[in-house]
Amino acid sequence: MAKEKEREKESKGIAPWQPFSEMARWEREMDGVFDDFFGKRLRPLWGERWWPSRDLSVAPPALDLYEDQDEIVAKVELPGLEKDDIEIQVSDGLLTIKGEKKREEEIEDKNYYRLERSSGSFSRTVNLPAEIQGEKARASFKNGVLEIRLPKSEEAKKKETKVKVD
Cα–Cα distance between 93 and 133 in angstroms, integer? Predict the structure, then answer.
């Protein structure tokens, strides 16, 4: 037992005492918990102090999906992309949008102080609320917004039912 105590004393003398190292670990763990719960989209609402930009990846794009009498419309924000960087697929009641944001230029001899412009690929899939005619789908891309128009099938148009309110 005396030897164990000596080893313990020796090992304590080797590593310097860092009282705040545990707090830094707890902060990293809490960042992960907030990311998992709220998602990374809320980060801009909080300061850099709480969510440092150490993990800058391409987030899934924001998407609005609505339907009217004849079609389903999806509007997707894709700033910084070109139309050739986007792929759209429709199958089995799902709309999938894939893309890749590429770094414009690479400067090798510079020491970056901060690098916030992200690059990478993303994929976003949503359920469609009605059956569509995939072969008649059309898309346009203007000012960083992708608009996809998916005409409803004739059966889907007929399924609309009005409900009387008492």
Answer: 11
Are 66 and 128 spatial neighbours (Cβ–Cβ below 8 Å)? no
- Please tell me the distance from the alpha carbon of residue 54 to that of residue 18, in angstroms, as a whole number: 23
Of the CA atoms within 13 Å of residue 156, those in its CB half-sphere come to 17
CA distance 56 to 40: 10
Q: Are residues 78 and 50 in the same domain?
A: no
**Please, which pLDDT band fits residue 90 given cuts at 50, 70 and 90?**
very high
**Structural domain boundaries, residue 22:** 17-56
* pLDDT value at 10 more than 70: no
Query: Number of C-alpha atoms within 13 angstroms, CB side, residue 42?
Result: 8
Query: Is the same domain home to 80 and 151?
Result: yes
What does the pLDDT look like over 122-147, one tens digit per residue?
888 999 988 998 899 999 999 999 99
Q: How many domains does the chain have?
A: 2
